[in-house]
Amino acid sequence: MNTLIDMILTRHSVRKFTGDPVSREDLEAIVRAGMAAPSAVNTRPWAFLVITERSLLDLLCRSLPYAKMLASAGAAIIVCGIPEKEGQVSERFWVMDCSAASENILLAAHALGYGAVWTAVYPEGDRIADVRKACGIPENIVPLNVIPVGIPVDRAAASVDRSRREPVHWDRW
Questions:
Q1: How many CB atoms sit inside 10 A of residue 152's CB?
Q2: Burial class (CB in 10 A: 0-12, 13-18, 19+), 2
Q3: I need a surface site. Which of 12, 15, 130, 157 has the fewest CB within 10 A?
Q4: Does domain 19-150 have CATH number 3.40.109.10?
Q5: What's the rounded Cα separation, in Å, for the pair 41 and 154?
Q6: How far is 173 from 165, CA to CA, in rounded Å?
Q7: What is the pLDDT along the chain (173 residues), one digit of tens a residue?
């Protein structure tokens, strides 16, 4: 089977990490994959904050209720939206554009042998405020998510086939 299709079908959320660091080179490759995502009218209304500092990972872990796995992650990538980047286009589509970038990040991490998981920040106001404060993110930038990245404790591939026939329709509903 095609390697890309294999990566898509075996990608899964990883919440248990060894605590070992993620190399800067791999983090740069993962973020480049995020930047390769499509965006409306090629506005690219995103910014990426790569976190490797242990004290900041721990602070985010304490602040975010569903990101406790940051305690053992080697790094994290915060995908941020810039709603004002290109006027109405970015205002309307930044969430979708940043979501596409996030999926690329998750797939790239998996392809490089890391585990990762999407933890939501947006649209929760308290989470947005906590991440902005912890990371010095300006008010006009919106953190969409925090993606913990690390070496998985269990390197076994996803064994669950998530494909289903029910949601697929051909030609007409």
A1: 18
A2: exposed
A3: 157
A4: yes
A5: 40
A6: 13
A7: 578 999 999 999 999 999 999 999 999 999 999 999 999 999 999 999 999 999 999 999 999 999 999 999 999 999 999 999 988 999 999 999 999 999 999 999 999 999 999 999 999 999 999 999 999 999 999 999 999 999 999 876 666 778 889 999 999 99
Structure-token pair, residue 86: 């290109």
- The predicted model scores a pTM of 0.95
Which residue's entry shows tokens 């973020």? Answer: 31
Place of tokens 């998985």: 152
| Helix ranges (DSSP H) in the chain | 3-10, 24-35, 54-63, 88-111, 125-135
